[in-house]
Every structure is written in structure tokens, then in C-alpha cells.
Amino acid sequence: MSDPASRDSNIRERKRSLAWITAASATHLELGLTAEQRICLYRECLAVAQEHSDEKVIGLCTSALNTLDDHIMSDFRKSTTGAECEDKEDDMTTYMILAIGYAHLEKEEYDDVILNSKRCLAMAQASGEKVVEMKAYEMLGDAHLKKEEYDDAISYGTKCLAIAQASGKKVVEMKAYMMLGDAHLKKEEYDDAISYGTKCLAIAQESGHKVAEMNAYKTLLNAHFEKEEYDNIISYSKKYLPIVQEFGIKVNEMNAYKILAVAHMDNQEYDDSISYSKKCLAIAQESGNKTLEMFAYMMLGNAHLKKEEYDNIISYSTKYLTIAQACGEKVVEMKAYMMLGVSHLKKEEYDDVISYGTKCLNIAQESGEKEEEMNAYIMLGNAHSKKEEYDDAHSFFTEAETIARELEDNHKVSHLGIRINEIYEIVGVSEGHSELSSLLKTFLGSVQKNESLFHSFFRFLHYKENDKYEEAISCLEDFMAHGKNSINEDEYRELLWTCNLNISKLHVLLKEYDKGIQYQQEALDVARKQGSKSKQAMSHFILGKVYYKLKQFENAEKPLKESLRCYELIFVGLKQNDRFKIAFIDKYKETFKLLLKVLIERNKKEEALVLSDQYRAKALKDLLVSSYGMKKEQTADEDLQYADVQSLVSSSDYTLLFYSTCFDELYTFVVEAGNELGFSVQHFEYCDTCLDKLVDETFEDMKVRQVIHCEDRSLDNMHYSEENKNPKEDELTQLLIQQREKRLSEQCRSTCVCRGNPSENCDESSLTSGLEKLYQKLINNIKFLIKQDEMVIIPEGPLCRLPFAALRDPDTGQYLSETKRIRMAPSIASLKFLQEYPVEHHSRNEALIIGGGSVDPGKVDGVKTEFIPLEGAEEEAKGIANMLGVQPLLSANATKPVVIKRLQEGASVVHIAAHGNLEKATIVLAPSSEIRKLKRIPDEEDYMLTMADVQQTHVRAQLVVLSCCESGRGEIKAEGVVGMCRAFLASGARAVVGSLWKINDKATCEFMVKFYKYLKDGKSASTSLNLTMKDMRRTPQYSEPKYWAPFFLMGDDVTIQFKD
3-state class of 960 per DSSP? Predict the structure, then answer.
């Protein structure tokens, strides 16, 4: 056993330690002790401090004792001695442990709080001291609440509450309610939080405890805020604010303004929301609270957005964007970009929308915020759609739709489906209301208040399909009436245009043309207010169509021109999306063709010719860009005037024939120097598809597909195994092809029934071949207008692949090439461009002769491909090179780098006899020696000469001869030949010779030798080609058209001066 002295020393040290902590805590903590107990405690502490000469603790205890009531202290001193306090040491120790717990609570040492409180709790329960037990529960509840252990906090708070209620301790009861309210709030059990908060508030108000009242309001505000019960928020906030202002607690005041701003926003009380947001902002700026400053700016932006005050939105959004960037708050920065994008969208500043939308999208993708990513895609889609850049809009809407499906957001999926379908309808892919109806049903069905719209719309569809047009009109009128009051303004404007458009069409079907025009004008007004070029184009077109139907051609002309102007602007927005352009061109073409008919009806033939050429030149350029990746050539086709056409022919010795198909008519324009514009109209029973078949009939007549002894220089017909094919073709392209084939097939069936249109001089039934039939249609009725020896023909559609040289006059039996020299041109604008180009621009260097190309395997579309050696092409190249006195580039020597270098240096004549891929407009050369040394299969870019490559070299050749099998066919889209010949002209060549089909290798070689002989003798290209055809006809084995008719000259009629 230890000696008494040692034991007393330990006791003293313990008391000293307790005195330190108790004195430090009791000066500012509520321990729930009576005054007598507190005095006893402080005197005990003071005694220990004095014993150890601890001046700090002596000062604390003295200060605490001096704060007690003098009367109570006096009475206590009379009745209580230090010895009695000594007897109560164990009781005081319990309070000291409790005090230690409070000290740890102040220091946020919650595990220590829990440890001490449980010790105190055990001692209080053992001694039956309910007040201390209650305080221990209270402290335990507070500690677990701070540790976010809400179930424990609720458990201890409930026990504390029970003792407080039993003992009538109202203040502790109030605190227990507060603790329970906060715990349930954190657990998102908002009804319980409100219940306890309300009870806490009642006691606080009854007892005049302002701090507790303030805290109770705070709990109630937060709970109602989460429940979005904004009226309650506003009510409590008005009571809460005076208290926090009285106490000067700026943080709470600021938070109150924040909550009020949100509440008034939800109640659509935007001015009040703005007012409270500004008050929140002022305190946030004063206190340097950047988070709430950002929030206030955000709320101000939202409120002004609702009020459609877009400049204010941009101002506030820019401010909180700046703070977000400085603080590194990426999510807030993303929201700021979204708000700025929406504002600029409303202001129709679409480039700004795209800029902010892109920044928003980047952050959303980096942070994995899928919903914000979806919204950014939607915003970008809307901006590009408004700019009528439908390729980009379709891409963004499709991306958004994919995310909406991932998020299972059916409303967004339906909405985006409608937007995508709108684009399909604009570019001509959609087949009408069927898909839209399904999507609209889902979209409207998800909103209960739009049930009446849903029923009106589908009644309209039902009546329309059953030819009950008056009932359908009534449904649409109901649709507009209900929509005005049940959907937002933007959606209503969309519906208003659609309804007016369809009502107009229905009145036209009822032959109520005045009403049809009236409603279409209203639709046009809506489209103008929206700034929608596509809708304006459609409304203008329908107005023009109605006026045309009424034979009011003067009234029809203006809206059709406006429609065409709008469509041209939209066409630019399709950018590189060739599949959209293919579909859209049919809608554009319909307007153009109807305007063409109107101009002809009004006897404006010169204007009709210029319009046709502008349309054709523009379409050709766009397809060259989209198909071959070439840059758009600069020509003045949009400024072409008929005076330019007259000037063109007046300085040349040729007759210009310009063909244009227009619905069921064929227009032929004949332009010749010194004469008025010749014009012929034929009711041509064949639509483009049927005309295409008639051209094929000429091929059958000439048996061009039965040519033997011909090496295949075309890659287009190369066979690839099924395993190398793309397993899934582009869905939209397939849809386009199916719809186009269906439409053309229907047109063919409806128009190909021959109604009989014999010429005055010939019974069409007596014509024995397609060549005679086409001569009768294309030449016979205008041949009296052709005075010159040379014809320059500008064909359209299927006529582009027609061998005009082989057309045969049924009266004389002569081929057209026997009486006329023939040259082709893509458009009048291209002829004018060539004529105006400086002669010195084109090279006079020696000829470049290329033969054979690669003999090594290479990749084609990613697949290893063996190239068949072209012995005939090499022999052809050698023969021509020998005749011209130059060294040819053959097989492995014809590398891509060498050929490009020679093209850049310039050559008067470029002759290419090699493999060609006409679909891509590429020519097979050989890879460089450096590539071959790598011992890998060359990729296409290593050896394929593309038209983009050619364009970059600025060819400058006077003549290019493409002796690739079928090198002149290219891609035909009814706007003109889009193939290598057109591409070489666009790249700088002055003239190009091509072929329409395969012929015998020996025949090709003989044809080329004869052609170059005439060229070398100083004959022009047109004359040389014509003489060569005549020579071939005189050669018994090659007298048939299939051997000489495929060759044609496109471009200028050049004369080459070869060097000796």
C-alpha cells in the first residue's frame, strides 16, 4: 500500500487537473447546476489552485465566483463550509466529467465527448441523478449529430427529451427538439424535421429564447425548402429575418435571402426573387463569400431569363462565370456557359451559342455529367438548326438522343425524335406524318394538360386520310385554339406554322384557293418571325404552286424565287453531308423546276436558261466538294447574265445546245451568234428514270457490254469477298436510297406509258434503235437552228452519259458525228470561265505520259488488293510517248510523288492509262521507293492519286486524256457528269478527253494513236476527235459505234503546239 502522503499528493494533483478544466469551462458553459453547487465547485477549484499557486486558475475561479448573485453567495457562505464541499467530492466529480465533455465538444473532439459523456451517464444512472443523465444524453446526441451519425443522435435526443419532459426542464426539452429536428433533416425525413422544429419554436417563443427561435426557423426553412413548399418558406423567412438582423448574424441573413429568392422564383414572382437575390449578393460581396456570390448571380440570371431580359442574364452569367473560373469551380462554370448559351439562343446570336455550348459540352464530358452533356448537345443542335446547318444539327441531336436513352428520359427521347424528324422532313428524307405522329403522341401524352391537343391532332390525321378535308380543317383550328393557352410560346409558334400550312393545303384540295392563299400567307408570317428559312421556303413554294395552278404566272414567279433563295441558304448549311444534299436537292429541284416552267410560260426564256445554268453549276461544285474532298472552285456562275452567254458564242464558232428536263417536258435552248435564242419544248413522256433506261437501251443496241479483249482498268467492279464488306451500312443512307428508288419507280410507272408524240416527219414506231429514238427527241426538232459545224452540248441527268456522237438520223442514216463536231461542257459558267482564263496560264511543257501504275498489292478500303498488270495500258503509253518524243512513266516508275512533281512543273498534255476508281475519282500509281523499303502493304494515300491531290498541283495542262476504263462515267445525280473529267477541269485543265465504256485494247490503242497524230499535225482537240471517229468508222473491224462512240471531249477546244 502507498503511504498517506503519497496518496494525498495524488488526490491533490487530480483535483488540480479537474480544477483547471472545470474553471476553464464553467466560465462560459451551462452545466445545469444550482448556484450553490456552482459556488461549491468553483471554491474547490480555487482551493486547489491556491495550493499550487496557479495564478491563471485562481483568476478564472475568482472571476466566475464574482459573477454569481451576491445574496446567494452570502447565504451559501453562511450555510456551507469548505468541509461540506469536501464531503460532496464524488458528486462534484460527476459534474467535472460533464464539464470535460463540454470542453471536448467545444474543441470538436467528438470521440472524447462520447467517451466522457458515457462515463458521466453511467455514474448519473448509478446515483439516480436525472439532471446529469439528461445532460449526458444531450451531449451524446450533439456529438453523434456532429459526427453525422444521425440514428444515434435521434436515439440519445429522444432519451434526453423524455427526462426533460418528465422533469419539466423546458429549455432542455427545447434543445432536444432542436437536435431531433436537425437529425431528421439530415436524414431527409422532412416531415419529422418540421414536426420537431415546430415544437422547438413553440417553446422558444414561449420562453423568449431568441437564439433557439432563430435556429428553429432555420430548421423549418431548410425542411420546407427541400419539400419545395415555397409559401411556407416565405412565411417563416419573414419571421426569421428580423431575428437574425437583430443579432447581426450576416451569414444567416444572407442564407435567408437566398432561400427567399428561390421561393419567389418558384412562385413565378420574379421581381421579388431579383430583390432578395440582390440582398444576398450584397452581403456575400461584403463578407467575401464567393460561393454565395456565385449563387446570387445565378439566381439573378435565372429570374431575368424568366422575364426574357437577356442582356441582364448575360451580364450576371458573365460575372459568376468569372468567379467560377477563378475558384476552379468547373460545374458552376459549366452552368454559366449553359446560361450564356441559352441567352444568346434567345437573342438569335447563334455563333455565340455554339461557342458557349461547346465549352459547356467539354466540361460536361470531362466531369461525366451526362445530363448536362445531353443539354449541351441539345443547345448546339438548336443553334445549328436555327442557322439551318442541318448536318451539324442532326449530329448533335443524335448524340443527345443517345444519352437520353441511357438516362431513360423518355420525354427528352420523344422531343429529340421530333427534332430529328423535322430535319429529315426539311432535307426530304421523311415520308410524312407517320413517324411524327408516333413521336408526337408520346410527347403530348406525357403532359396531361395537352390531352386536348393530342385528340385534336389525331382527329385531323384521321379526317385527312379519309379525304374529309372540312372536318380536318376544324380539328386544326381547335388544335390552335387549345395550344395557345396550354403550351409555351415557342412551342405554340411551331404548331401555328404547321397548322396554317396544313389548313392552306386542305383549302386548296377543296379548291378554295383564296382561303388556301390566305392561310399560307399567315404561315409565311409566322416563319418570318421565327427566322426559319426552311419554313419560309416551303410556304413560298406552296404559294407559287397555288398561283401556278390558277395560271397566275406573274404572281407565282415572286414566291418561287423567294423559295429558291431560301433553299440556297439552307443548302449551304448542309456542309459536307452528301446524303442530306442528295435528298435535299430533290426539294430544291422541285422549286427550281416549277420556277423554270413559270418563266417559260411568261416567255422569259433567257432568264430561264441562266437560271438553269446557275442551278446546274452550283450543284456540280457542291458535289465535287462533297464527293472528292476538293475545294470549291471560284466561278462567277451566280452573276451570269444572258448578255454573257451571247458574248460567249459571238466570239466562238459553235452552236450551244442546252438541255433541261422539267417534269414531263424537255426544254432545249439553242444559242448561236447573231441569232435569237432558239427554244424547243417537247412533252417528254419519260421521267429521268425512264430516260435513264432509254440510254441503257442505246448501250444494248450498240452491244457495248459484249466487248472482248479488254483489260479492266476500273477498280469499281473489283470483287470483294463478303467478309470484307461492311456488315452494317449507314442506316440513313439506306433509308434515302429506298425512298428515292420507291419515288422514282412510282414516277416511272405513272409517266412511262407512251401517249404517243410522233414528230411531224417520222413515225416513232418505225424507229429501230434507241439511238434513232433519242436523235428524234433531242436533235431532229431543232436541227434547222444549228448553223455551225461544231456543237457544244450541255446535257442534264441521264443525258450526261449518252454518246451524242452515235445518235443516228433515221431519215439519212447518218450519225450526228458525221455532220457535226461535238464537244461537251458541264455548264455555261464553266465555258465562260475557261474562255476568260489567261492563255499563258496553261503549260507548254512536254507531255506527261503515264502507263500501267502499281504492280504491287496495296490496300483498297483497308483490304489487301492485287492489281492486274495492264500490259495494254503500257503499250498504249509507249506508243503515244514515242510519237510525241517523250519518256513515259511506266509501272513502278510512275510513283505518286514523281507524278505530283511533274504535274506541278506543268505539262501541255497529260495522258493517263492506268487503273481508276471512278466512285472515288482516284488513279492507281506506284508507291515511292521509300514506302516499298518499309516492306508493308501500302495504304491508299501512299499510291492513290486523288482529285484533291490533283487540285493542289494546279494542273495547268491544256489537255488531259483519261484512258481509264469507263473514265468518263463518274457519279450521275441528274445535275451533270460528276467524275474525273469534271474534277480535272475544276483542277485547272483546259480540256479533258474521257470514255463512257470499255472497248477492245487494240481498238483503244489505234484510236489514241490516230487522235494524237491529228493533234500533232496541229488540229484542234475537237477536230482531232471527230476525224479519229471517222477513221475508225472506215476501219472494218472497228466501224461499229461501240468502238468509236464512247470517247468525248469536255471543256475548251484546245490546239496543242508540240515541241519538235
Answer: strand
Q: How far apart are CA 968 and CA 1050, in angstroms?
A: 10
Contact yes or no for 496/453 (Cβ under 8 A): no
Query: Rounded to an integer, what distance in angstroms lies between the CA atom of residue 616 and that of residue 596?
Result: 13
Longest dimension (CA), the chain: 151
C-alpha cell of 463?
Answer: 379526317
Q: What is the pLDDT of residue 796?
A: 87
For 545, residues 6+ apart whose C-beta sits below 8 A from its C-beta are: 556, 594
Rg for the chain (alpha carbons), in Å?
46
Residue 306 CB neighbours (<10 A): 13
Strand pairing report for 1047-1051 and 922-924: unpaired
SS3 788: coil
User: Are 970 and 992 in contact, with CB atoms under 8 Å apart?
Assistant: no
Q: b/e for 761-771, b at 16 or more Cβ within 10 A?
A: ebeeeebebbb
Give the separation between CA 360 and CA 376, rounded to whole angstroms: 6
Mean local confidence (pLDDT), 532-537: 86
Mean pLDDT along residues 801-827:
94
**Phi and psi dihedrals of 661, rounded to 5?**
-85, 140
Task: Report yes or no: 975 and 959 within 8 Å, Cβ to Cβ.
Answer: no
- Residues 6 or more apart whose CB falls under 8 angstroms from that of 539 comprise 497, 501, 520, 523, 524, 527
Separation between Cα atoms, residue 1015 and residue 1022, nearest integer Å: 10
In our burial notation (b when 16+ CB lie closer than 10 A, e otherwise), range 581-591 reads bbbbbebbbbb
* 367, amino acid identity: S
Cβ(508)–Cβ(562) below 8 Å: no
Task: Supply angle C-alpha 554, 555, 559, rounded to 5.
Answer: 115
Give the whole-angstrom CA distance, residue 440 versus residue 434.
10
Of 806, 751, 796, 750, nearest to 774 (Cα)? 806
What's the number of CA atoms in the CB half-sphere (13 Å) around residue 814?
Answer: 9
Handedness of CA 683, 685, 687, 691 (dihedral sign): negative
Give Cβ neighbours of residue 465 (< 8 Å, ≥ 6 apart).
Answer: none
Q: Kindly report, residue by residue over 221-232, the tens digit of the pLDDT.
A: 899 888 988 889
* 558-587 per-position pLDDT tens digit: 999 999 888 888 776 666 555 566 566 666
pLDDT tens by residue, 292-325: 988 999 999 999 888 889 899 999 999 999 999 9
Cell digits of residue 481:
385554339
Query: What's the CA gap between 593 and 600, in Å, rounded?
Result: 11
* Amino acid, res. 1007: F
pLDDT for 585 equals 67
- The pLDDT of residue 759 is 39
Nearest to 568 by CA among 545, 551, 584: 584
Q: Determine how many CB atoms are found less than 10 A away from the CB of residue 511.
A: 8
Residue 942, Cα to own-chain centre: how many angstroms? 34
**Residue pair 504/542 in contact by the 8 Å Cβ criterion:** yes
Question: What type of residue is 267?
Answer: N
Whether the model clears a pTM of 0.85, i.e. scores above it, the answer is: no
CB 1016 within 8 A of CB 883: yes
Contact between 495 and 480 (Cβ < 8 Å): yes
The distance in angstroms from the start CA to the end CA of the chain is 134
Domains and CATH numbers, the chain: 228-308+316-327 (1.25.40.10), 329-427 (1.25.40.10), 449-637 (1.25.40.10), 842-1051 (3.40.50)
**What does the alpha-carbon distance between residue 814 and residue 803 come to, in Å, rounded to a whole number?**
14
Cell digits of residue 52: 499550487
- Write down the pLDDT at residue 983: 81
**Spatial CB neighbours of 46, under 8 Å, sequence gap ≥ 6:** 19, 57, 58, 61, 62, 65
- Classify each residue of 411-448 as buried b or exposed e, where b means 16 or more C-beta atoms within 10 Å of its C-beta: ebbbbbbbbbbbbbbbbbbbeebebbeebbebbbeeee
Cα angle: 781, vertex 745, 567; to 5 degrees: 80
